[in-house]
Write a structure and sequence with these properties.
The complex is a heterodimer of chains A (905) and B (109). Chain A contains 26 helices and 25 strands. Chain A is of the alpha+beta class and 905 residues long. Chain A folds into five domains: 73 residues, no CATH class; 190 residues, no CATH class; 186 residues, no CATH class; 171 residues, no CATH class; 219 residues, no CATH class. Chain B is of the alpha+beta class and 109 residues long. Chain B has one domain: Arc Repressor Mutant, subunit A (Orthogonal Bundle). The chains are: A alpha+beta (905), B alpha+beta (109).
């Protein structure tokens, strides 16, 4: 089509729409002209005037039909039909405000929720990576053989192998988080920074704002050069943007480091709160070590796909296993795009929520559909009239779809508000460690566009069935057939709704159940009144030398027990502290759970890697007051006390899960085990069993086995992967009053021991628990709201079916009443009508929810995914709601006056 | 009056376009012209002329304008557009192909 013709056609259509009257008038004139000419010709051929007139009329045919045919050529009749349908639909909506409100509000919820989540999903996919050509950056993660979901960082030998042997990477670098204590002008502060290989900055393709980045010779094996690169933020905050900062020495963890560079504003890697970068020089221990603590970032060569890179590292794995024969086998490497590594944490909550809101939208569709179908009988006279007058079936379908579209658009418009609320809630989600929060989600344009699209799509889903039923019902003389067909259709819809509502209710019921347990602080300890903070003595202060251990070089440590003990004693003397204790790792929400391999006396020493894994337990070193301070109940035996010293027999307290795992059916008190971590370990006797304690604020799986031993009872020479944990202590201070006021006093007390060591992560346990619960609260609340909504909608569905039945059988009911049926009988009839769809729905929902709830297992604390109480409560709730929904139509049926009915018969 | 032979589907459009090649005409004029050019053999069903004209106008092949006739009467005159001329050539071409094919078939039959 040429452009000029396209423009011409557009102008024609436009004229047809806006100047309809004038065009119609022109058609009249044109035909009149033709008639006149014909008449004149006929007159000239000798006809009488009357005859000439008649003949010309005959020649041209039926004028009305002819005019209509001419008008139809304009191809805009659909527009006038549409306008008529819209006017009609608006009229219907105003006439039935109750129906309109129910339909529009439920559609608003369905459309709004889907809009919010799809919109957030899109911004997760499209969010800009703040690094040049960031789409080619990947993180190489490692995956343990037992648990493919549990991805982690890599060890140094793995990195070295990938870097040297891979062919698909342009470059590769390593980073590891490092917390260091910075002292500027006498004020100590704990900072989070990164030790990085010089190659990392090349991989990221970044340049400093001032100075330079690291040179390769600054990261030689075993000796990192004392240089540091500052973040723009740190430079601004602590050094007032000093332009002469380059070359100055700053004191970090007691070492003097020379500032060689400042990064540009807004640069961070790999975490938003990274404040500095120091060179990472591997030591001999790390070069052969198995600790997977290092984040490996690589840049793919141009044109290389993820699959090629994956195949590349997979090919390196067998050689790697041969080179390191002592390490557990079966670990795999996985290439994860940086985008996914940072933002992928949104995937699971988004998918969970999207699944829920799609279910809700489908329920809404089924429901509005039922309500619309139930109204069809009321239109039947008019529809059959229109069909008889020559309107096509398509025309009727179109009319009903227009009404659906209008309803859906009203719902979508309301849904925009819900979507905006939903997006802001999702923006409030806190990312897990290592992941990045996504800001700027939910642009208004995107929300509006999505809501409009969803409205149109939704209107087709729920509108098509009523439209088809309506258009076929008009031509059907025997209404009974229609009613029967309509009945079975709405029965299926009701069953589906009940089933979906049951699945949602059970899921949210389980999550709610678990959530309430967490809210009620049923974690095995009492977080109220507890202040926690971390204190650390850097490894450099107590590490001695490298020794051989299990064929690998290992650092030897003398744990700084005495230094730590001095801090503990100071804290115990804090005025206002009811009880004070310490633990080698944070008792709640630690980044890494420390584990240890146990050798139980009288059983074989775990030798193979899988034996060792089976003998692994979570392992905490605590002070004597730990359980009293946490308020964790002792179930058997005795607690640690001040008489347990390094010189007295070594002891341990275990939790229920550990007792159950290693000594099922036996009393574990008096049994002995050895921690397989060091030379000087002695056998420890189990003296008590405590309740299982949640190790995370939320997202606990089933309780893990935990062994607690005394901080004082440890060897003075230490090796192994967890060695670093013995120089740090999380102190727990319980107070009768608001524990946060103790922070200042605690800081002073600690400064008396060493003024250069700060307290880090000072927080009340309630605050940290609530912070973590906040995220969960959103998703649990959202799911619960959806479930309740689904239940309400299912109730509307049951109501629709029974109510339609009452309308159909009104006459029968009245006659029955007139001849003496009692209210009970009528209610019974209605109950029987509702019974089957409800029963089928409950059964299918029950069967469906058993596999569906199983994946919730990892998120539940204190309940199992097949919790019978939850299932029973949900089923009882749905039955109750269904009965209530039958009650309204039943009352309507009973309100009729039987004598009047007899008179009209 | 002998019943004029029915026009083949689509032929009416061709005839209308052809009749407009020399000068713009109004509906009545087109009807006359088709009749006279065909030596009165073809008579357009006069009623069907107008929907066809309106269709051609809507499709952009012809453009209409209100002008005075020789007798000073206002009438709607149709003229070929540039696209209309090309369309006419295409339709003539396909008509020739069709008629020669039909002619060939009739000769052989």
């Amino acid at each position: 089509m040429t452009f000029s013709r396209f423009v011409r056609i557009c102008m024609q259509r436009l004229q047809a729409l806006v100047r309809k009257e004038r065009l119609d008038e022109q058609v009249d004139q044109e035909l009149l002209f033709h008639l006149e000419q014909l008449e004149k010709e006929n007159l000239e051929s000798g006809m009488s005037p009357a005859e000439a007139r008649r003949a010309s009329r005959r020649a041209l045919g039926n004028m009305t039909v002819l005019k209509e045919e001419c008008r139809e050529q304009r191809r805009v009749s659909w527009y006038y039909d549409f306008c008529r349908d819209v006017r009609y639909a608006v009229g219907m909506m105003r006439k039935h405000p109750g129906f309109t409100a129910i339909a529009a509000i439920s559609l608003a919820l369905g459309i709004g929720a889907n809009t919010a989540i799809l919109n957030v999903g899109a911004s997760v996919l499209l969010h800009d990576l703040p690094l040049p050509d960031g789409e080619r950056l990947v993180v190489i993660r490692t995956v343990p053989p037992q648990n493919p979901v549990q991805q982690g960082h890599a060890s140094v030998p793995e990195y070295v192998a990938w870097k040297e042997q891979s062919r698909t990477f342009e470059s590769m670098g390593v980073s590891i988080s490092s917390q260091q204590d910075l002292v500027v002008d006498g004020a100590p502060e704990r900072l989070l920074g990164q030790a990085v290989t010089p190659s990392l900055f090349d991989t990221l393709r970044v340049q400093p704002q001032l100075g330079r980045l690291f040179l390769n010779e600054e990261a030689q094996v075993g000796k990192a050069a004392p240089v540091i690169v500052l973040s723009h933020r740190l430079w601004q905050r602590r050094f007032a943007c000093d332009p002469d900062i380059l070359g100055k020495q700053i004191r970090l963890n007691g070492r003097d480091l020379k500032v060689v560079g400042v990064m540009p504003r807004g640069f961070w890697y790999p975490m938003e709160n990274s404040e500095f970068w120091v060179p990472l020089a591997f030591n001999r221990f790390q070069l052969g070590g198995s600790a997977r603590l290092f984040m490996v970032t690589g840049r793919l060569k141009t044109g290389t796909t993820l699959e090629q890179a994956q195949a590349d590292v997979d090919g390196i794995a067998p050689q790697l296993e041969r080179d390191l024969p002592n390490r557990p086998k079966g670990w795999k490497a996985r290439i994860v795009p940086l985008r996914q590594h940072w933002f992928g944490w949104m995937r699971r909550p988004l998918l969970t929520l999207e699944a829920a809101v799609i279910l809700v939208l489908l329920i809404v569709c089924a429901n509005v559909s039922t309500l619309l179908v139930a109204r069809v009988p009321a239109w039947q006279p008019e529809i059959s009239l229109r069909l008889r007058m020559g309107a096509g079936r398509g025309r009727i379908v179109r009319q009903f779809l227009t009404e659906s579209l209008l309803l859906s658009l009203v719902g979508g418009a309301l849904g925009v508000f819900i979507a905006r609320w939903g997006v802001s809630s999702l923006e409030g989600l806190k990312p897990p460690p290592g992941s990045i929060r996504i800001s700027g989600m939910g642009q208004d344009g995107g929300i509006l566009g999505l809501a409009a699209l969803l409205s149109v799509g939704t209107s087709l889903i729920f509108g098509i069935v009523p439209a088809l039923v309506a258009s076929s019902s008009g031509s059907d003389v025997r209404q009974a057939t229609v009613c029967r067909r309509r009945g079975s259709l709405s029965d299926i819809l009701v069953s589906a709704q009940i089933g979906l509502a049951l699945v949602l209710l059970v899921s949210s019921g389980l999550l709610l159940n678990s959530f309430v347990r967490l809210v009620l602080d049923d974690r095995g300890f009492n977080p109220k009144g507890i202040l926690t903070f971390q204190y650390r003595i850097p490894v450099e202060d107590y590490a001695h030398r490298l020794v051989g251990y299990r064929g690998l070089p290992a650092m030897e440590f003398s744990p700084p027990t005495l230094a730590m003990q001095r801090v503990y004693e100071k804290l115990k003397a804090l005025p206002g502290a009811e009880s004070v204790a310490g633990s080698s790792a944070p008792p709640l929400d630690g980044l890494v759970l420390p584990t240890a391999t146990l050798h139980i006396e009288g059983r074989p020493v775990p030798a193979t890697p899988s034996d060792r894994t089976n003998a692994n337990v979570v392992y905490f070193l605590v002070t004597d007051n730990f359980f009293r301070t946490m308020k964790t109940p002792m179930l058997r035996g005795r607690d640690f006390d001040t008489r347990d010293l390094s010189s007295t027999p070594w002891v341990a307290v275990i939790n229920e899960a550990m007792a159950h795992r290693f000594w099922p059916g036996e009393d574990p008190v008096g049994k002995r085990f050895t921690v397989d971590a060091a030379f000087g370990e002695r056998p420890r006797e189990v003296i008590g069993v405590v309740r299982d304690v949640a190790l995370r604020s939320v997202r606990n799986g089933p309780p893990q086995a935990v062994a607690y031993t005394l901080y004082l009872q440890q060897t003075d020479r230490y090796e192994g992967i967890n060695a670093g944990m013995f120089g740090q202590m999380t102190f727990i201070v319980r107070s009768n009053e608001d524990p946060s006021i103790l922070a200042a006093a605690a800081r002073r007390a600690v400064a008396e021991v060493d003024p250069h060591r700060p307290l880090a992560n000072i927080q009340t346990m309630t605050a940290s628990v609530e912070g973590a619960m906040e995220t969960r609260r959103y998703s649990v609340t959202a799911l619960a709201v959806f479930a309740l909504l689904a239940t309400a909608l299912a109730a509307v569905g049951v109501y629709g079916v029974t109510s339609a039945w009452v309308t159909q059988r009104a006459r029968e009911v009245r006659v029955r009443m007139a001849v003496g049926a009692r209210a009970r009988d009528i209610v019974g009839l209605i109950g029987v009508r509702a019974f089957w769809p409800v029963a089928v729905g409950l059964l299918s929902g029950f069967l469906g929810s058993i596999p569906l709830t199983r994946w919730l297992d990892s998120q539940l604390w204190g309940v199992t995914s097949s919790d019978p109480a939850t299932f029973a409560a949900v089923i009882a709730l749905l039955i109750g709601v269904s009965v209530a929904a039958c009650f309204i139509p039943a009352r309507r049926a009973l309100r009729v006056n039987p004598t009047q009915e007899l008179r009209t018969q | 009056m002998p019943k004029p032979s029915d026009l083949l589907q689509g032929t009416l459009d061709l005839l209308i376009l052809k009749s407009l090649t020399s000068a713009p005409l109004h509906g009545w004029g087109i009807a006359r012209r088709i009749q006279s050019l065909s030596d009165e053999v073809l008579s357009v069903q006069q009623g069907s002329l107008y929907p066809a004209l309106h269709r051609l106008e809507q499709q952009g092949w012809v453009v209409a304008d209100w002008k005075n006739t020789d007798l000073g009467r206002s009438a709607k005159f149709y003229a070929l557009t540039r696209d209309g001329r090309k369309q006419l050539e295409r339709e003539l071409e396909s008509w020739r192909r069709l008629s020669s094919a039909v002619g060939l078939l009739l000769k052989r039959a």
